[in-house]
Design a protein that fits this description.
By secondary structure, this protein is an alpha+beta fold. It has helices at 3-13, 23-26, 38-41, 50-64, 69-74, 77-85, 105-122, 133-147, 150-180; strands at residues 89-90, 97-99, 196-199, 202-205, 215-228, 236-253, 256-272, 280-296, 299-322, 325-348, 350-352, 355-370, 373-374, 384-386, 389-404, 406-407, 413-425, 432-437, 440-445, 452-463, 468-479, 483-495. It contains 9 helices and 22 strands. A hairpin with a 2-residue loop joins strand 18 and strand 19 (440-445). It is elongated and about 95 Å long.
Length: 496
């Protein structure tokens, strides 16, 4: 048997790897089948999605194509010499290369990695395992779901959710200013500035007028926890976030104030479930912008325009097991990009004694771009080039809120606060992410985000003086996309 034939037979022995057939079969992406793996399809396996088919085809071409991993590896002079000299040795049960003098250790490592995956799917050469087609298919689907860019495409939803909660918190802080630090229109200001006046022939001194307070500064902190269930072959996740924000507004003219804000937000995401693979992500975000409010009587208008820069470190994990074997891999990626935030909200506050209540509505638009990344670490064969993403959110909110004044002392009062709103998402439509593995491109298609969610807020404002107040609010959010979030924020407002 000549060397070339020996090499081809060795390659064919590996064609069961990842359920692939020859290149021609792997390239057939348009066939009307129920599965992504030609070998399993022919045996009746089914239930594969188009995303799984696309990724499977890229793996097949990348492994077994003319310029694929195995053809390139077996045409390597060092490997050919090892075959010629009989120095390449395999474990008879596992199929791992145990010795190959002169062959690049990285090549041996990648070969053994792929053989490890093969053993998870089909068992080793001992003949002791005999997994059914359904078992092979189930593990392979799990592998494809974990390998896909699904965790990357989840990031915009997580960041949109964070932007929504933070915009809500800014509106609630503006409520705290209106409720606690706004001037009482029933108290008429003294116009004489403390100058002497003559009344009925008598000289009197009017009380001094305090300088008009036009600035309001604030600083607040927040914490946020979210939980999402697995849907559409995406992993579930738990996220934890915390941050700080500061800003100031200036009253340009009567009842109209505007000013800047800046803050930092850190988010940690742990992906879970059968499609999580032990993956995680950490986002560091800097947020900035302008906010403003105009009010007249009980009517108020709030506005926000700003942005953020997000930098996300991703640990993309794979963890599968079967037939007594386990395979674990962890690749690293970094994505980053800008975010544009805008919001307009309006409402009316009715007063009935110490009770203030009324309807509120808002519309917020957020645009986000995240760069692509070349994964590093783990198996080189499984490291991917993940494409960039652009996504938009247009979120409408309709609800109401109420607060009540409780006088604790002559100057200190407590104002409990309650709000409830329905939110509807008009955008966040599905889009494609073009990525590549083993030098082969494929498209991963996302799905539409959930459309409806409810957000409830409960908290209070403690007015210490006519210039100083402290507030705290807890918001609960429940989405039809099986996402539940809770956020707590608190801070201080100072008027001068």
């Amino acid at each position: 048997m000549n060397l070339r034939k020996s090499l081809r037979l060795a390659a064919y022995a590996l064609l069961g790897m990842l359920g692939m057939t020859l290149t021609a079969s792997a390239q057939n992406t348009n066939a009307d089948t129920n599965g992504a793996i030609p070998g399993l399809i022919q045996q009746g396996a089914g239930g594969f999605t188009q995303n799984q088919v696309n990724l499977d085809t890229a793996i097949g071409n990348g492994l077994y194509g003319e310029k694929g991993f195995y053809n390139t590896a077996f045409n390597n002079p060092a490997v050919q010499n090892a075959f010629n000299n009989g120095t390449i040795q395999f474990d008879p049960q596992t199929g791992y290369i145990t010795s190959a003098p002169g062959v690049n250790p990285t090549l041996i490592k990648e070969y053994n990695t792929l053989q490890n995956i093969n053993n998870v799917f089909y068992g080793d050469d001992s003949g002791k395992q005999n997994p059914t087609i359904a078992q092979q298919s189930s593990v392979y689907k799990q592998f494809l779901n974990q390998l896909s860019p699904g965790i990357y495409t989840t990031l915009p939803t997580i960041l949109f959710n964070s932007a929504n909660v933070q915009n809500t918190q800014i509106q609630q802080r503006l409520w705290a200013v209106r409720a606690g630090l706004s001037e009482d229109p029933s108290v008429a200001p003294v116009a004489d500035g403390g100058k002497s006046a003559t009344m009925s022939g008598k000289k009197v001194v009017a009380p001094a007028v305090e300088p008009e307070q036009k600035w309001v500064t604030f600083i607040d902190g927040n914490g946020m926890w979210s939980q999402a269930q697995s849907v559409n072959n995406l992993p579930g996740y738990n996220s934890y976030a915390g941050g700080v924000q500061a800003g100031a507004s200036y009253e340009l003219f009567k009842n109209f104030s505007v000013g800047p804000y800046v803050g930092y937000q850190g988010t940690k995401v742990n992906f879970n479930g059968s499609n999580g693979g032990g993956s995680s992500a950490t986002d560091n975000s800097v947020r900035y912008g302008l906010f403003g409010e105009y009010r007249k009587g009980g009517w108020y208008n709030d506005g926000i325009i700003g942005g953020a820069y997000n930098s996300v470190a991703v640990n993309h994990g794979i963890s599968i097991s079967g037939n007594g074997y386990k395979f674990n891999n962890m690749a690293n990626g970094n994505v980053s990009g800008g975010e544009f935030d805008s919001m307009y909200g309006t409402g009316y506050e009715f007063k009935a004694g110490k009770l203030t209540f009324g309807p509120a509505t808002s519309l917020q638009y957020t645009y986000m771009n995240l760069s692509g990344t070349q994964e590093t670490g783990g198996s080189q064969a499984l490291a991917q080039n993940i494409g960039s993403q652009s996504a938009s959110s247009l979120l409408y909110t309709l609800g109401g809120q109420a607060s009540y004044n409780i006088d604790l002392t002559q100057s200190v009062k407590l104002q409990p606060f309650l709000s409830l709103a329905w939110q509807h998402e008009f955008l966040q439509n599905g889009y494609g992410v073009n990525s590549s593995i083993l030098g082969q491109s494929y498209n991963y298609q996302t799905t539409n985000a959930g459309r409806d969610q409810y957000i409830a807020g409960i908290g209070g404002n403690l007015v210490l003086t006519k210039s100083l107040s402290a507030y705290a609010v807890c918001n609960l959010l429940n989405s039809d996309a099986q996402i539940f979030s809770q956020a707590i924020s608190g801070g201080i407002n100072l008027k001068f």
